[in-house]
TrEMBL record:
Protein name: Type IX secretion system protein PorQ
Domain of life: Bacteria
Residues making up the signal peptide according to the UniProt record: 1-24
Keywords assigned by UniProt, alphabetized: Signal
Length: 350
């Protein structure tokens, strides 16, 4: 059974090239509510922003895969803060509750993004005043165990955006599944993210799709060392996820309004992968590092990639308090910093 699951997950990126819709390659600019893919917590950012199978007690991972919400996260409260690029700031809070009567674990979260004050001008550049764009998402999650090794979960997310007179709202759903072998210390996960529809569009009769993503992954914890490795594949349904800039590439072609370049199959496949490692040092320290190849290839400067695509984080884990910090390198001179605190409220009871 385990070998069959691993073989299927490893074969998915190759199978996705058989899907007819895989010809479109640009990820950004074609969807609404793209902020749903932002890493909401430092642990998520340290893992390369994508992970569906990590074996941990951090409730933040349920934001990536609802099947990772477990009973051990009962009464866990977490608050995260991100100082994003361009003065953008956003916060995220979530809470977990296990209902023993229904054998179900529930979670709720709120995400709020503040873009600051923006100067409004007309077509001639005349200043008309200022406005403050905002994004918000409210999420409800439920997760259950099936038999001994399977977990499944679903999240429903209400999304709202307000950009001056342009406003939109929608519903997004995430459906996840995990298979865990505690004896061999490994876990496989699968999630369908951002399935849904706009309830209200920015402009009349202009319905836009949500940033759907099909992700699969495997995590393995070593038997004698507190070290865990993860490999996650994103956009399984879309083979070519490159964005090729004709200013930096040669041999470009035009397909469906997008620029693309001919390239090797190996690079196309590897852009789907996010690799991560997590090391528990003693009882209280947790180190995380990851590599996102797509981020490095798309955002790193041609001759000065530096640490682009890499991310790392540290966690101080005690019984009553979890503190986390992460730093993600998008470009050589641009990095994202995130802070988070989690309190298992059940441990504060006397």
């Amino acid at each position: 059974m385990r070998k069959n699951i691993i073989a299927l997950l490893l074969a998915l990126p190759y199978l996705c090239c058989l899907i007819p819709s895989a010809n479109a390659q640009v990820l950004g600019g074609k969807h609404v509510f793209s902020f749903l893919d932002l890493p909401v917590a430092p642990h998520i950012a340290a893992l390369g922003s994508v992970n569906v199978s990590l074996q941990t007690n951090d409730i933040a991972l349920s934001s990536l895969n609802p099947a990772l919400l477990r009973p051990v996260m009962h009464q866990d409260l977490q608050v995260n803060y991100t100082n994003y690029f361009g003065g953008v700031k956003y916060g995220h809070a979530l809470y977990g509750h296990h209902a023993e009567k229904y054998q179900t674990t529930f979670g709720g979260s709120v995400q709020y993004i503040d873009y600051g004050m923006i100067t409004a001008t007309d077509a001639t550049g005349t200043i008309q005043g200022t406005f403050q764009p905002r994004d918000m998402a409210i999420q409800l999650t439920a997760s259950r165990r099936y038999l001994e090794r399977w977990y499944y979960g679903i999240s429903m997310q209400y999304v709202h955006s307000s950009y001056q007179q342009y406003r939109a709202s929608g519903l997004a759903f995430h459906v996840g599944l995990t298979y865990q072998d505690t004896a061999q210390h490994w876990q496989a996960g699968l999630v369908f993210r951002n399935m849904g529809v706009q309830l209200k569009t920015y402009t009349k009769d202009n319905q836009e799709p949500l940033p759907f993503d099909l992700q699969v992954g495997i995590s393995k914890r070593l038997n004698n060392v507190p070290l865990q490795f993860s490999a996650t594949i994103h956009h399984v349904h879309q083979f070519d996820v490159r964005y090729a800039d004709p200013d930096f590439q040669e041999g470009t072609i035009i397909s469906d309004g997008d620029t693309a370049t001919t390239g090797g199959t190996a690079d196309k496949i590897f852009r789907h992968f996010v690799l991560a490692a997590q090391w528990e040092i003693g009882r209280y320290i947790e180190l995380t590092a990851a590599y996102n190849h797509l981020r490095r290839q798309e955002l790193g400067l041609p001759q000065q990639k530096g640490m682009s695509g890499f991310s790392g984080g540290i966690g101080i884990i005690t019984r009553k308090l979890h503190l986390r910090y992460a730093r993600s390198w998008y470009q050589r001179s641009e990095a994202l910093n995130q802070l988070g605190v989690s309190m298992p409220l059940k441990e504060w009871k006397y």
